[in-house]
Each structure stands twice: as C-alpha cells, then as structure tokens.
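User: Please predict the structure of the protein below. I'd like the answer in structure-token form so I can feed it into my own downstream comparison script.

Assistant: Understood. Taking the following sequence of 228 residues as input:
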Amino acid sequence: MLEKKKKLSKKEIKQDGLVYSYYKAYDYFEHNKNQILIAVGAIAVVVALIFVYQSNRSNNDLVASQLLAKVMPLYDQAQYQLAIDGQPGTELIGLKEIVDEYGSTDQGEIAKIYLANSLYSIGKINEAMEVYKDYSGDNPLHKATALAGIASCYSAEGKNLDAAEYFEKAAFVSKFNPLNSDFILKSGINYKKAGKVEEANELFKMIKTDYAASNASREADKYLTSIN
C-alpha cells in the first residue's frame, strides 16, 4: 500500500523555494562567472577613477586658489599685463597660465573673470570676449560679471544692440547683485544708441521703480528727460 504523501507546511515550501533560488543563482554564476567578474571589475575601475578624478580636482582647485592669491595684488594695482603674464622664472604664475592649467576648477573659473577683465583693460577686446564667453562656473555674481563683460566688449565694438541684450541678461542672473541697477542703466543706454527707444524707456522706468535710491536712478532721470 502506498504511503500517503506528506503535505508540506508554508514554512517548508518557503524554505524549498529559497533553496531552489539559491541553486539557480549559483548555477547562473557558475555559467556566467567570467562575464560577471569582468562587469564587477569594470564597475570597480569606474568607481576608482571617479574617486581619483574628484581628489585631483580638489587638489587642483587648492593649487589654483594659492596661485590666484599671489597674482591678485598685481591685478588690484592695475598692473594688468604683469597679472596676465606673471613673472617667468619665479613662483608668480600669471592669470593666463592659471586658466590654461586649472580652468576647469572652481578657482580656475574665477581666474577667467580676472583674466578677461585684465585683457579688456589693456584693449584686447576680442581676447577678453573669448575668455568671458568661456566662463562656465556656478557663482551667479561671476556669471553676471561674465555677461556684463561680453556686453562691454560689444559696446566697445559699437555693437550696441548686442551690448544692450547682454547687459540686460546680466541684470537678471541674481536679484541680490548690487550691480543690477548699473547693468540695467547700461542696457538702456545701449538700447537708446541702437535706436530701440521704447526698450530703453522701459528699463529707465524700471530703475526709477525698483532702484529709486541708487546712483543709476539719477542717471536714468537724465535719459528719460532726453527721450521725452
């Protein structure tokens, strides 16, 4: 007589399922272990590369900061050409070399602003514009400065409409920028020179409304009077 088959409990069924899953996974690993190990190794390499990259970037940012601190006194003294070139044979590295070597770091991005300002100050307008346009940092004040720098370059070339548009962009990067009223004023002036009187008028009125206590407000009065 056949023995009656024992009914498995839920716990035993679950345990059997786990055992089955384990052996199924083990069997898959045995048949595909070369590919799995290669994939795991590749992931480990990527993680290691990211770590090294971040570490190097941090170190480079520190070096750029130290180099920038050494050259800034020259910039503050308006010795722009010396600030750009540095002093060969010494530890004083110029802004151009700092940007070339560390331009992808945060401090290197700041160095681009000072380099562009220096180039503009010695009349190298085209070179200055290229550096301003190359700025890609996250600091909103520096971003606004770069846009205003581009605007100044266009203005120097007599391209007043382009200058007006870039000054306007600079004014709306951050509402906390203390130079916003000046940017709006310069935008309005360039719109006026470009024959865009309506746009200029709106910006001058904006200054009177939003920046009534600023020096730009008094300047805006003059232009509003001349327009009207």
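That's the full token string. Confidence is low (pLDDT under 50) at residues 1-15, 45-55.
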